């Protein structure tokens, strides 16, 4: 990618190939110049990469000239390591020789602004012999842009909840206070229901919840989104108390644990399977092992320990399971 053997002619300057620089009498010696002349100097064309959409400057640091390499006895190496070493030595030799204009190279590095210009500090560079790699890249990049880069970024729900909890709404109440109030209202609304699975929209159908959300979300720029975030924040607090589980098999689906729940059936199935093994037959399963087994399922991959303990205590009070130690359980 450096200057070719023929000199490059610019509108006001003429550049010669690097192999001819030593012919100049003053080459390699210190120069005493006026600052005005230094400022007006034109840089020599550097190692640049062009992919058809633009050109960017690339730079790399060479090893010290005083560096001495200890020769390796290749005959004592296995065939696979010997071939790998020869390949690495060949690649290093090609990198030290540099590149010619028109070479196809693979560059990896970090972006850096140097002298008000963007450049790539190359940590890896190698000449590519297969021209099909360029065609593959031309077909791959549009797909990556469509699937990733061109999509608008959205904060994860947990981050949105954390940011909203620390904010203050138009009515002057901190978001954290409003979330706690809504959690209490939700708890009172659903603690006596026989419905087990509910979505975020289902929680908003209760009259007291509607009144609360209308009073505190209508003045926001996006009332619908504000309602959903506030309900999700309140449900997150209920998750921390172990009364609700956020299911992973459907978006915005929550399971209530107040009465008989599907999680209890899942715990029984785990105990039946695991306690049949000799390892757990005598003492039962540790609750953390039960938690791991449930988290390996699709529905309960986000199950929290507090929710599991809540259900185990309820099953124990119903005489469905027995606690053999402080942390081990088995079916009766």
Description of the structure:
- With 332 residues, this protein is an alpha+beta fold.
- Helix content is 42%, strand content 16%.
- The chain contains 12 helices and 12 strands.
- The chain has a 4-stranded mixed β-sheet with strand order 3-4-6-5, covered by helices on one side. The protein has a 3-stranded antiparallel β-sheet with strand order 7-9-8.
- A hairpin with a 2-residue loop joins strand 5 and strand 6.
- Helix 5 crosses helix 8.
- The N terminus is likely disordered.
The total of helices stands at 12
Please tell me the overall pLDDT: 77
Which blocks of ≥5 consecutive residues have pLDDT under 50?
Answer: 1-10
Total strands: the figure is: 12
- Cα separation of the termini: 76 Å
Q: State the helicity in percent bands.
A: 40-55%
Q: What is the structural class?
A: alpha+beta
Dominant shape: elongated
Which sequence of strands runs across the widest sheet? 3-4-6-5
Major sheet details: 4 strands, mixed
Instruction: Report the radius of gyration as a whole number of Å.
Output: 34 Å
The amount of beta strand, in percent, is 15-25%
N-to-C SSE string, H for helix and E for strand: EEHEEHEEHHHEHHHEEHHEHHEE
Give a quick rundown of the structure:
This protein is an alpha+beta fold. About 40% of the residues lie in helices and about 15% in strands.
């Amino acid at each position: 990618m450096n200057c070719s053997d023929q000199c490059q002619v610019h509108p006001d300057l003429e550049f010669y190939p690097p192999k001819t620089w030593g012919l100049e009498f003053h080459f390699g010696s210190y120069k005493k110049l006026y600052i005005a002349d230094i400022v007006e100097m034109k840089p020599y064309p550097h190692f640049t990469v062009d992919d058809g959409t633009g050109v960017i400057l690339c730079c790399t640091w060479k090893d010290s000239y005083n560096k001495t390499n200890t020769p390796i006895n290749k005959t004592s190496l296995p065939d696979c390591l010997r071939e790998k070493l020869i390949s690495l030595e060949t690649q290093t030799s090609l990198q030290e020789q540099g590149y010619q204009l028109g070479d196809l190279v693979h560059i990896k590095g970090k972006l850096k602004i140097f002298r008000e210009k963007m450049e790539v500090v190359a940590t890896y560079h190698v000449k590519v012999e297969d021209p099909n790699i360029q065609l593959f890249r031309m077909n791959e990049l549009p797909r990556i842009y469509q699937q990733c880069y061109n999509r608008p970024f959205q904060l994860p729900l947990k981050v949105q909840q954390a940011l909203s909890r620390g904010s203050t709404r138009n009515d002057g109440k901190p978001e954290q206070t409003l979330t706690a109030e809504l959690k209490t209202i939700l708890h009172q609304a659903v603690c006596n229901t026989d419905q087990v699975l509910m979505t975020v929209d289902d929680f908003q159908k209760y009259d007291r919840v509607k009144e609360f959300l209308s009073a505190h979300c209508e003045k926001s720029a996006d009332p619908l989104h504000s309602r959903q975030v506030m309900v999700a924040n309140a449900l997150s607090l209920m998750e921390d108390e172990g009364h609700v589980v956020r299911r992973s098999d459907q978006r915005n689906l929550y399971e209530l644990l107040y009465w008989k729940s599907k999680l209890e059936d899942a715990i029984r199935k785990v105990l039946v399977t695991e306690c049949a093994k000799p390892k757990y037959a005598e003492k039962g399963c540790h609750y953390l092992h039960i938690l791991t087994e449930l988290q390996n399922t699709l529905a309960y991959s986000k199950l929290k320990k507090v929710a599991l303990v809540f259900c185990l205590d309820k099953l124990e009070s119903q005489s469905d399971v027995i606690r053999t130690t402080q942390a081990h359980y088995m079916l009766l």
